[in-house]
Amino acid sequence: MTGVSVGPDIVSQTYSRLLARRTAVLAAALVGLMAGLVLDVATGPAFLPLADVVRSVLGQSDDPSINAIVWSIRLPVALIAVAVGMALGLTGAIMQTILNNPLASSYTLGISAGAGFGAALVIVLGASLPVPETYAIPVMAFLFAGVASAGVYLIGGLRGASSEMLVLAGVALLFLFQALLSLLQYIASPEALQQIVFWLFGSLQKATWPKLWIVTAVFLAAAPLIARDAWRLTALKLGDERARGLGVDVRALRLRSFAIVSALTGVAVAFVGTIGFVGLVGPHIARILVGEDQRSFLPASALYGALLLSFASVASKNIMPGAIFPIGIVTALIGVPFFVWLILSNRKAYW
User: Rounded to an integer, what distance in angstroms lies between the CA atom of residue 145 and that of residue 115?
Assistant: First the structure.
């Protein structure tokens, strides 16, 4: 019996080519993200020249009106689109990995719905709360994102916290929170109902520098924690049993991952509302381009999630002149055709 031997040089060359390809994919995403950021800042009721935007961002513009528009109004919006897109893209990648399910994301498993219910509860209770809505809405959205995550893990944990049970628990909680949200909308006053609906559409336009710092700080705190588990997550993609055989504590890994997903989703939804499809589509783009190695897959998912939301922000300001479409509607309009294309183009090999 003869076999084909593969020398160390061939393995090394193959790995070098793969590493170069992944580096190029990440670099392309960064370049595209910078372009999207500048275009997002330039776009608005009055289109600013791209060169003026770049000079203002770099602190080299002497035009006070352009500096005021860029730094006080548009730059926080453009940057929070990047920060929230990275957070949602990363949460989608984590959820799809730990649950081994291409449809998993914080949006499809009820965590975003839980955050939306928390925000709607504050809006309906209104003046009866001792805390102003400005602070109560993000706090309750963050809190109920944690409640939903804990619910998914605890219900799924009753049968061993397997990926199938966690997915089923997530779907059940999604319907539960949607039903509770519908109940709140049913009993809300017309003014509160209108506020709930607009909040659920998602909006980047209320972004401020303090909100941006909070979202960025949570992301920067979570990223090293999940990066430390990159190898364990790659092993988990081989299946629970093989991961355990490689020394991975699967239950503890899922628990840590759920905590990180809860924090990232809660802080994102708290300030911009519920935005779907970014956490679903971003990881699929990353998987097609860099594969399943979590060392590349996780950062690529974050970058392509940010890229998607940044260009969705640009599109939201150009669909109808003089009006800004809710960002949640735009991401769905972009995400649904892409997801259908994924299904119809037989990309199962990447799943």
Answer: 5
Closest CA to 262 of 137, 170, 179: 170
| Residue closest to 275 by CA, chosen among 53, 139, 84 | 84
Closest CA to 118 of 141, 97, 102: 141
**pLDDT tens digits, one per residue of 44-67:** 888 899 999 999 999 888 889 999
Predicted TM-score of the model (pTM): 0.89
Query: What angle in degrees, to the nearest 10, is found between the helix axes of 278-290 and 8-42?
Result: 140
105: which 2 tokens? 């994301």
Q: Which residues of 149-163 are buried (b: 16+ CB within 10 A; e: fewer)?
A: bebbbebbbeeebbb
Query: Do residues 106 and 263 touch, judged by C-beta distance below 8 A?
Result: no
Say which residue the tokens 């840590």 belong to: 256
- Report residue 273's pLDDT band, with 50, 70 and 90 as the boundaries: confident
Closest alpha carbon to 106 in 154, 159, 139, 142: 142
How confident is residue 1, by pLDDT bands cut at 50, 70 and 90? Answer: very low
Residues 165 and 278: their CA atoms lie apart, in Å, by: 24
Q: For the segment 217-235, what is each residue's pLDDT rounded down to a tens digit?
A: 999 999 999 999 999 999 9
User: Can you tell me the distance from the alpha carbon of 223 to that of 52, in angstroms, rounded to the nearest whole number?
Assistant: 33
First to last CA, the chain: 35
Cα gap 88→335, rounded to integer Å: 14
Phi and psi at residue 11, to the nearest 5°: -60, -45
Burial (CB count <10 Å: 0-12, 13-18, 19+), residue 244: middle
Our CA angle for 57, 301, 74, nearest 5°, is 25
Torsion angle (degrees, nearest 10) of CA 182, 183, 185, 187? 160
Give me the amino acid identity at 171: V
Listed residue (230, 228, 248, 229) closest to 240, CA to CA: 248
Alpha helix stretches (DSSP H) within 126-162 = 133-157
